[in-house]
From TrEMBL, chain A:
Belongs to the bacterial solute-binding protein 5 family. It comes from the Bacteria. Residues 32-48 have a biased composition (Polar residues). GO terms for cellular component: ATP-binding cassette (ABC) transporter complex; periplasmic space. One of its GO terms (biological process) is peptide transport. This is ABC transporter substrate-binding protein. Pfam families: SBP_bac_5 (PF00496). It comes from Paenibacillus agri. GO terms for molecular function: peptide transmembrane transporter activity. Residues 32-51 are annotated as: Disordered. Residues 1-24 form the signal peptide. Residues 93-456 form the Solute-binding protein family domain. CDD domains: PBP2_NikA_DppA_OppA_like_15.
UniProtKB/TrEMBL annotation, chain B:
Residues 73-262 form the ABC transmembrane type-1 domain. Keywords: Cell membrane, Membrane, Transmembrane, Transmembrane helix, Transport. One of its GO terms (cellular component) is plasma membrane. CDD domains: TM_PBP2. Belongs to the binding-protein-dependent transport system permease family. The chain crosses the membrane at residues 12-33, 76-100, 112-131, 137-155, 194-219, 239-262. InterPro entries: BP-dependent_transpt_permease (IPR050366), MetI-like (IPR000515), MetI-like_sf (IPR035906), OppC_N (IPR025966). Pfam families: BPD_transp_1, OppC_N. This is ABC transporter permease.
Amino acid sequence: MNLSFPKFKWAIVMAIGFSLVVSGCSNGDKNAPANTASTNEAPASTPTEGGELTFALAGSPSTLDVGVTSSDIDFRVGRNIFDSLVGELPDHTIKPWLAESWEISADKKSYTFKLRTDVTFHDGTPFNAEAVKVNFDRSADPNGKSVYAKQLLGPYESSEVIDESTLKVNFKEPFTPFLSNLAKSTLGIQSPESFKKYGDQVGQHPVGTGPFKLASWVANSEIVLEKNSDYKWPSPAAEHSGPAYLDKIVLKLIPEESTRVSSLQSGQVLAAESIPAQNIVALEKDPNYQIQKALLPGATFQLTFNNEKAPWNNVKLRQAVQSTVDIDAIVKSLYLGTFPRSWSPLSSSTLGYDSSLEDSYKVDIQHANQLLDEEGWKLGADGIREKDGKPLEINYIDITGNREKRGDIIKMVQQQVKQIGVKMNVSIMAAGPYVDALKAASYDLVGHSFAGGDPDILRTIFSKANWSTNEYANSNFARFYDPQIEQQLTDAYQEADPEKRIATYKELQQYFVKNAVSIPVYVFPYTIAESKKVSGITFDFPGYPQFYDVAVSK
Amino acid sequence: MNAKRSLFSRAMITVSVLMIACLVLFALVPGWIAPYSPTEMNGAAILQAPGGSHLLGTDYFGRDILTLVIYGSRDALIIGISAVLLGGGIGALIGAIAGYSGGFIDAVLMRLIDTLMTIPGILLALTVSAVLGPSKFNLIIAVSISIIPSFARVLRGQVLTIKNRTFIEAARSIGTSHLRILFSHIAPHAFSSLLVMGTIGVGSAILMGSGLSFLGLGSSEEIPDWGSLLSEGRSYISMAWWIATFPGLAITLLVVSINFLGDELQSAIGPRKG
């Protein structure tokens, strides 16, 4: 036996590797014709009725109980199963949906809804005032499991059933964001029967009034929705009436982004969500695909200073960093022009967004250096500024995973702040230690975004009430508190006059940018890439896809 | 046929040695060789194809890939060598003690090693890395732990065969201490197999280190290692193939060279020869 074993091993490994590569390539091609064949059931006419849509989801929903969860992907799927009382259009006007009309009391604390009387849940039970009350009471229950729905209901007090189709919702104090919040799938109405029947398992057996109902769900693999044939109460944004065009939607759960894109390109799915920047650029050039984007409302991705901790509690120092970080270069390098730059802590699709902040400050290294000199931070021998023997450092913390290239952003910022003699230490941690560090406020800088709808999201990220106490309430990572600003944040959510309200939010945005409380980076576009055979995917206001108007042509 | 084979292996040895020497040189003095600074992000030259002023192209930050590959060799070698020294050292020590003492100590130590062995190396390293958090030091610890069992097993076997030879018995009979027997008499005989294992171990440690780094469990320092470069370039493969390809090639060439050398070393001095 002179032939040594390791060489044999090498040959075998290489042979296996090669065959894997070959089979990997041919797999997609084999599947492509089979899959497209199954979708051309109806002759080509616009819009085509029937057929199915295969759609690659970027994650795996854990529950479809929208009243309890806080996860975006659950709300996206839930949007097509549950309807809301009202709908919000992109211009922020609120339109009737399951509620035909509503009245707001003189003290702004009560809303009286007149509901549609012809609506039934997927299980055949009627939709009525009692059903809505059950949903709101469940989500607002202080001992309940609800996370996001509870927040959206704000100072909710009670619901009163006036009659079968009239419901009065009472709040402890005026709460203007309510109607906008009501439009989200988070406050979509679930069948009270389903709560009784399935108990804790209702998230696996969602029953709504929506255009689609759950047909099957294989965990971590796929969710199949089928048409609700009785549907005749579409959202105000819908383009047709009656039941949905599609017979069936197959949601394939594909968390890995490049796999998602290749399953679209190989024809295994007709549409895919959350497409990375570099693939958007390529797909836009491809005549077989189209890209749809919705700029998500809420708080944009921003680098937020710990405003409480020295030395970054000094506004001059924060402004120096603000004048140094070249956001344009970051957005261009990492997102290739597919993500817009953000200028305000609020996203540009949010009510009250202050567009006058755009181009209101620019990169100015000289100014930054001057500010730091004035504050007594002198350049040391190693190129890092120091004062009283302490180096000028920014300790940045983030969670592992480089989501949306956030880890790459910080690599660029790290190089940029070197120019003004600031040393940036980056700690990337697992979820547990990260949450602990957030609670302990041991960082100088942290990156975060908050999807939302109403500009009241500013309270989420800058109100004293959201200083770290527990995992869910901890969202004021800026550790920001100013009594006057706190008052304005409160006034703004209670203000009923839209113009006054918007004016206050603009003032607030100006304040946060001028004082460099955080540095806004990008507005996240939710993207869908789809085959040109697919038409009619629309977005509701917070930017969740709606499949009601979708048709698949041959 | 034999002559042909040896000619081929000689050529391969030369290539491997050159390859390794080259990368060691890169690791020692990257600043002398690399055309750019590894942290320089040139916004005007992002995602440039190989050729021109950037021989291997640029990544999406506008960093020069050649420069990054040159600087990355340092991390690769540091991780590979320190993991083998640490993990291999501990493993060898455990193996030697177990083999030499025999009986109860041997049973306990080897059952521990067996337990460790039931978990595949990469899985073990992955777990350790995930628990400790991503950093270069933790990565070395993780890789080290995963290679302890194989060193322990081999060393124990070596010691078992050596310790019953007559010259050890002779040493024992004149009252030489156990430590002295272990280190002066047994260790030199086990050295050749340790050397072979160590060489091949460096290759697999580099591979494992890069793998963990690829999965985001490596260091998040300013200069990326090969594994994180590979992971950075992965999602750009259809648009800018060069980001992932060249670091991947560097890993492959280095590991194949080391493994080849290890194999040759084994056939030259290894105990299983003939």
